[in-house]
Structure formats: C-alpha cells, structure tokens
Here is the input.
Amino acid sequence: MPRALWTHLVKDLRIELRSLDAFVSMLFFSLLVVVLFSIAFDPHGDFSRDIAGGVLSVATMFASVSALNQAWAREIRHNVIDAQRMAPTPGAELYLAKVIANFLFVTVVQVILAPFFLIFYNLHIEGQAWLLAIVLPLGTWALVGNGIFFAALSIRTRNRELLLSLILFPIFIPALLAMVRATTSILTGDGDPTLWIKLLLGYDIIFTTVSLLLFDVVFHAE
Amino acid sequence: MNASTSEAATSPTSVRPVSASLDKVSKLFGSFAALRQVSVDLEPGRCYVLIGENGAGKSTLLRILAGLLRPSFGAVNVFGGLDPHDARDRIGYMSHDPMLYDELTAEENLRYFASLYNPGRAGLKRPSLTPAEALRQVGLDPELTRTLGQYSQGMRQRTSLARVLLPVPELLLLDEPFSNMDVESVSQMVQLLAGFRQGNRTIVITTHQREHAAPIADWVLALRAGRVASFEPGNPSL
Here is the structure.
C-alpha cells in the first residue's frame, strides 16, 4: 500500500475512533430506518424476505449519506485541505484512503445492524447466505466511492449536503438496483444473483477508476 | 515605484536570482478583481512584508504564490521558471486557519504532514526537521498530549508554523502569522524567521501589524484595492 495512502487512512481511523462522530450517527440512523420500516410494513414470512433487500440497501444508503456529508468536514473546518493540496502526494491517495475508511465504518455498522435486521424482519435466509458477504461490500463500496468523490466535488458549494444527495442518488441507482435484486434473490432463494453481483462489480470498477482519474482535478480546483 | 502604474515592482538588485516572480498578475473572482496587474520579483534571503487593508489582495497574492490559486491573467513562476503547483513541496504556506486537525495532538498532526512530505518515493526531498524538532523550534513541547482543539489560539498558530517548517521550504508564505499571539511569542517567531531568512530562503508575510514584522522586513509591499500602492525597502534590525 502506498505510504501516503496508509498515512491518510491511519489519520482518518484515529480521528474517527476518538470522536465516533460518523459511526454513531450512522448506527442510530440505520437502526431507526430498520425499525421504522418494520413498524410501517409489519413484515413476516415471504413478504419480509421480498422487501428486506430493499430496506437493508436503503438503510445503508441513508446512513452512509449522513457520514458522507461529514467526510470532508474536518478538512474544511480549519482549511486542512489546503495543507493537503500543498503536499507533494497524489490526491488520489487521499481519496482512496477516505473511501476505505468510510467503507470500514459502514461495514461495521452493517455487521451490528445484521442481528437487529434478522429479528425485526423475522428472516430465514433461503438462498446462499455467504453471498451477502460479497453483495453488501460491493454495494457499500459503490455508495461510498461515489459519495466521497461527489462530496469533494460539492465541497465549495453553499448547499453541499443537499447537492451531494441530488448528485449521488441518481448515479447510485444502477448499483442500488443490483444490490436490492441480489440481496432479495439470496434471501428468497429465487433466481440467480450472479448477474447482479457482476453488475455491481463492474459498476465499482468503472466508477472507482473514473473517480481516481478525476480526483486530482476536483481536489486542486479553486 | 509609482502606485498608479502596473509596471514591475522589483528591488534595485533585480539582477540577483529570484525565488518567485509575478508578471502582471490579475485575479478575478466573478466580476471582482482581487488583484490587478501586480508585478513583483522576490529574491532569495529576503523577507517581504505585505501590508494593506482588508480586501486589498494580500491573501490572494499569497495563495497564488503557493499555487493554490491560478492567476486569471499574467504569469507567476517560482525558483527560476517553475509553476508554483509543481514546486509546492518547496513552498511553505501558513494561512489564517491553523490547517491542522483539532482531534489530533500537535505531534500527531506534524507526524501526519511529515509523512506526506516523505512518502518514500525517489526524487522527493526528505523533511529536514522531525515533528519534535519543528515543535521545539516554535517553542512548543512535543510531549504535550492535549489535542489541538484544547490549545489556545496562539499555540495553534505556533503549531501551524511548525507544520510549515517541517520540509524546510525555500519560499515561506505566512498569512497573518502574528494574529492572536502575545508579545513574547511574536518576538520568538520573528527571531525564528530571521534565522530562517539567513539560510537564503525567502519569506513573505502579510500582516496588519507592520511593527511586528519590522525587524525582519527587507521590503514592504503595500497593496491597495488589488494594486501595488508602494514597494519600499524596510529597515530590518535582525
């Protein structure tokens, strides 16, 4: 791993471990979404399995956005970003470190969320449960990878929080669709999730590559 | 130098090598002109003090020299023809903000930035100061375990200066470095900068407190409404 990437990553993890700002807000937000949806739909049996993929994806999406909105807040607060822009390291390494850090935060939230999810939705997984360990990280990476990029893009705008959602959600739709279909297929045991997993993988590769290539331009923009 | 003209503002010894050169630089933010046709050459081993009212263009000029802003018109180069952005590892920039993380200690902040300046790639200059050395230079204790959020404004300012000094830059750009500092700290900082300048390095300071920078001011450049109003020799005592 490039040293600057590692340096950025360690810094982000250390700060988050000290403050737990993003983690706590994500956890409570996602728990709220899961509980509220379970009250609204009173899920059980087949119906529960049908909607669970969508609820899990939406819970992850909303929770992540609350963290993504704050992803660059510490860099903006005391203008740390200018010191980073002056450092002789590629901006892409800062981008990738932020994606990895936020990916880890969201993944931990998902792991904590999982038992609550199974309880509130009375889920008995019919398909190959281990495939969820591929689908969820791929979907999370798609969300976080784009989110960090677009959060950086909207850093200098007044309504950056609103702007992030407005840009991110439409672009995330193909990945959301693949994530929901794959998760539902795994939970219900109906159909083959392979196609959706491939779509997610392709989406991640394309968008991560494009973001890495373009990040320096966004990062060094005035 | 006539304040109403846009001719080059160069010191009489302009045949000497220049650390940075601005040639008819203008910077527009929308329809607002923050800088208008500013030309100036900065020599190594000199300290330049930029003065002017709020909005005169001092910070904009510094950010252009740092490579953080690009001029709308005109040309800027450093170290004999380089784009400031390409030479940013040789330029130190300290802004009004500390440019550091509140959640980390001073030593952690500096260790983070020192790693960025020394990412283990060939061709990149190693930092000449360790975080502990840089902190001691600005009169701070590297062993302090408090996070930066618990520091006074003056201590943050000094930590910020320590960050800038880490790679021992050849061109040091300081935006209001004396704000929120007590008299003794200002005196220490001026002494430190005087030593730094003697290493044939160029210092550019913007300040509203001209008297603080006077002991090291080789040249005083006054900006008014984005234009060079005057460019006069100082009377340095250090």
In short: DSSP finds nine helices and no strands in chain A.
